[in-house]
Amino acid sequence: MQVKGIALMVTAIMFLGMILPSCATKEVREIEVTTLENGLTVVTKELHSSPVVAMTMAVRTGALYEDDASNGASHFLEHLLFQESYTREKPVFDYVDDIGGMCNAGTSYDFVVYYIEAPQEKFDAALDIILDMFLNPSLDEEEFDKEKGVILAEISAMESNPISALYSEFPSLLYEVHPYRRPVAGPPQTVEKMTLADLATFFYTHYTANRMTLALVGDFETSKILPQVKQKCSALRQGEPQEVKFPEQRPIESPRGKIETKGFPLAFIMIGWHGVKALDADFYPLQVLGYMLSGGKSSRLDQRIIESGLASEIYLISEPSYEPGAICFLVALSPENIDKVKQIIFAEIADIKVGNITEEELRRAKSLYKSDFQRADEKAVDIALHLGLFATIADFDFYNNLLGNVDKVTAEEVQRVCQKYLGRDNYAVLIFTPEVK
Fold first, then answer.
1. pTM of the full predicted structure?
2. What's the CATH architecture for 25-233?
């Protein structure tokens, strides 16, 4: 089982590109992109297969844009903005229920995304609801105190789930100085110290139109809905352009390892290497490499580790990102198999490095990657999420050309990136072992 590199609501990074001219509109295949005078990017895609509309608001914020004192603020605000506003007396979920829709949100290292899916005839109401979250947040003290308790409980619950615990702890091992080292939800002691004033400052700094992308997908005519979208969205605050420079990741020069005893019934390994950002040409062969190693039952590690009974599950973690991300593998197994599994992982990497790649293996890895993406890009809400996120971590060309660029990957490119990135000395590994009874 693998966590898809293009799976929705997973780690992906911000797009800090140049703002387009005021109200400039261009067409990218079936996508129409408009940048308003306040800097908001609006992207629309008509999809008439069913009478629904989906809208997402992706905000360029997240752990990447926090410091140690504000770590967790993006996630905290995500919770808080779903509560009542100055113009609405109930939480957002209640209003979306009233129009027969569904809504949710997610926070990552590099973005926060909010979405609503609703019947086509409720387009206006859904747009009003999602915009109200950013135009009229009450940031109420009582709700702040309540949500702080909810978030602290969530963070605590992560420790009882091995996958969540690995996701939370591993980045600090893989990255030394880069913001990716911080947990998305923040450390509990940092969240505990946060005040409502801290969150208000964070909101007014980061929730500006020039840091947001509104993606609209569904059963509508763009020419008819765009004028009202422009009019309503013009009320969003215009922010100053912000050029953010992040500290460079320090190369790993010798293996970094950590072993912890946990109360889980199995052992768990997360092993990973620094990768590249989404807009790097090496992103595509690295994705194919990841699927070649662990892209399903026929892939190398699944065959040698899962099918042989050495482990129960293996996850590939390789996601598009604004800053150089990572390529990792997470394995659930019995503790006595830890060394064997590590040896197999390095043996398969070594085999690819010397060019032992068949055309059939290459074709299968690319086909599986494309199939995973297409399955995650079928419904209106899936497409809206992809459009918002990819506009934030890369650009719309990245979305349009992704599958074509994957299809162009050669065996020589896979061999080259394997040699370049997946070394025997530049990795980090975190191991959870069960308590001995």
1. 0.90
2. 2-Layer Sandwich (3.30)
